[in-house]
Specification:
The chain is α/β, with parallel strands linked by helices. Helices cover about 35% and strands about 25% of the residues. One of its GO terms (molecular function) is tRNA (guanine) methyltransferase activity.
Length: about 375
């Protein structure tokens, strides 16, 4: 009888524990996003993570916040965000209180759980990002967390595998936020990028541009000025296409694009050609989608060259685009491209998105080929 009684009590305790756990809110996460692409990133989060996700009703620039109640590894597959952090909001008056026994043990446990999501050795270095990171309190926090995780401290965020942030809540709430990045590298650092090239496009922005063209499996997609292949590779990874074609006049750049496409598993699906983007051999009205990262005139080209390039480029793209074709162009030469587009009638500008990334403020122009 005693054994049955103990068994019943054990089951009762287990049910109470499970009920308590299910009543707890799902872990809170915050994703860094290119400023200007928050809505697109939020849509991807909702689409990929349902039914285990709930978006937080707070408007943030350059970030999307949500709760997610399933395996954190699923967050590694997000493509339109730069990085994902687990967010812990602590009701403390100042950072020194984070070193208190209860808070510190909870933070150490959460940080160690993130490390254990990855194979041994994935994290080697630690970096703390915080206002006043040089103060004695912040140094104690950084040293203590690095020691707990067995990681070497570094002085720049680019060197840090485990990235920890401490800040005031950006929306003005009380307390302090502690954030831990979920991955040793930003999600924008794609595994397929085995060949880097100066001026290479950010992969998350490229993914967003490809999505904005409403990909369809029957699309013939052309990527003039393809560089190291970022735009076309991201488009190829989203969905099938009838044809994926990129061109550039630099042989070394095309070789780099081929390496990246091979690493992405797309070597057989993408064609790379050494063509002048303003004089292609493509037939008239033969392309459904045009994606391009136009020369900004900084690392690649110059403003004087762009004044000659942009009008000829827009004219050639109008020649090869089918009626109703979609275009997504990104450039920092906003005034110049605006002037060129206003002087022609073949393309209709449907939307212009301002993006802030790495200190630059380019625009994404979404275009539609007029139907006559």
């Amino acid at each position: 009888m005693k054994r049955k009684h103990r068994s019943a009590k054990s089951k009762s305790r287990r049910r109470r524990t499970e009920a308590t756990q299910s009543a707890l809110p799902a872990p809170l996460y915050e994703a860094d996003v290119a400023d200007g692409l928050e809505a697109l990133a939020a849509e991807e989060v909702r689409r990929r993570l349902q039914p285990h996700v709930s978006m937080e009703p707070v408007a943030l620039r350059g970030a999307v916040r949500f709760r997610f109640g399933d395996a954190p590894r699923r967050l590694f597959d997000l493509k339109t965000v730069l990085a994902v952090f687990q967010l812990h909001r602590l009701d403390v008056p100042r950072p020194r209180a984070l070193l208190g026994d209860q808070h510190w043990r909870a933070l150490c446990t959460a940080a160690a759980a993130i490390v254990h999501l990855h194979p041994p050795g994935a994290f080697e270095t630690f970096y703390l990002s915080a206002a006043g990171a040089h103060t004695a309190t912040m140094q104690r926090i950084a040293e203590g967390m690095a020691n707990h995780l067995g990681l070497r401290r570094v002085q720049t965020p680019d060197e840090g595998h485990f990235l920890m942030r401490i800040r005031r809540p950006p929306e003005g709430s009380a307390g302090w936020d502690v954030l831990f990045r979920l991955t040793p590298r930003p999600l924008s650092a794609r595994a397929w990028r085995v060949c880097n090239y100066p001026g290479a496009m950010n992969a998350t922005v490229a993914h967003a541009m490809a999505l904005l063209t409403a990909p369809h499996p029957d699309d013939i997609v052309f990527n003039p000025c393809c560089g190291s292949g970022t735009l076309l590779i991201e488009r190829g990874l989203i969905a099938p296409a009838a044809r994926l074609l990129g061109c550039d006049i630099e042989p070394a750049v095309l070789a780099c694009a081929r390496e990246n496409a091979l690493a992405a598993g797309l070597a057989e699906r993408i064609e790379w050609e050494a063509w002048d983007a303003c004089q292609t051999p493509l037939p008239e009205k033969s392309v459904d989608v045009i994606l391009s990262d136009l020369p900004f005139g900084g690392l690649v080209g110059s403003h004087a060259e762009n004044e000659r390039l942009y009008p000829a480029f827009v004219q050639e793209m109008a020649r090869i685009a089918r009626p109703g074709a979609r275009g997504a162009l990104i450039t920092h030469e906003v005034r110049l491209l605006n002037t060129v587009l206003e002087a022609q009638t073949a393309w209709r500008v449907e939307q212009v998105l301002k993006v802030t990334l790495g200190g630059l403020h380019p625009r994404i122009f979404l275009l539609r080929r007029q139907v006559w």
